[in-house]
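Progress against Task 2.4 (sequence-to-structure conversion) is shown through the following example record, which the project officer requested during the mid-term review.
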Amino acid sequence: MIKFSDVCKSYSDNQNTLENINIGINQGEFVFLLGKSGAGKSTFLKLLTREEKISSGRLTILGTDVSKIKQNKVHLYRRNFGIVFQDFRLLKEKTVYENIEIAMRAVGANPKDIKPRIFEVLKKVGLASKFKNYPHELSGGECQRVAIARAIVNKPSILIADECTGNLDSLNSMRILNILKDINKEGVTVIMATHDMEIVNKFPYRIIEIEGKTIVRDTKRDYYESDYI
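C-alpha cells generated for the chain above:
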C-alpha cells in the first residue's frame, strides 16, 4: 500500500532531511512514527501527502507513483488521506456540525449523504449530542474528537495523526487512541507521529523510528485485546 524505495529528501541547501528510506506499510496497519524533533517525521508525513516531493528514489502509495502525480491532480490524490493535527484546526466561528460539513462539501459529496454521514462519525467519536456546539464550548479532548470525525468523514484509506495527543492529558490521550484503534479495525491504515511513550507502550502496534535522517527501528509487536484500556 505504501512503499518507500531508496527515498531521499533534500532541500535547497542540499542537506538531506531523509536518506535511504526503504520501508513498506500494508493496508490496515497501525504504525507509530517516532523520532526526536527535527528527525524527519514531519517530512516523512509530508511526502505521503505530496506536500513535499521526494528528491530521489521511488514512493508508491495505493498503486500510484506519487512523484508522477500532476500538480492539478494532487487535490484528488489527497482525498485518500484524513489528517488530524495537534492543534485541532477547527473553525472557531463554525459549529461542530459545520466544521465536518465543510470537509464533505469540499469533495463534492452528495447533499443527501451529508447529514447522516456527519451524525454517523459524531456517534463514532461520542459527540453526537454536541453537534450544535462551537469549539470554544468544548474541552480539548472533545475538540480533537471533532477533528477526528472531520478527518474520517470522507472515508479515507489512510489516517495520519500528527502528534494528535500532544495537547491532551493522559485520560483524553487514551480515549483518542481507543477511537483510532476502532477506526483502524475498519481497515483504515493509521500512521501516528508521537512523542508519547506511555501511549506507545500501552498500544503495542508497529513502531517506525527515524533518527539521523534514516530509519533506525522497525518493530512489529503482537498484542491481545485485553491489553487495551
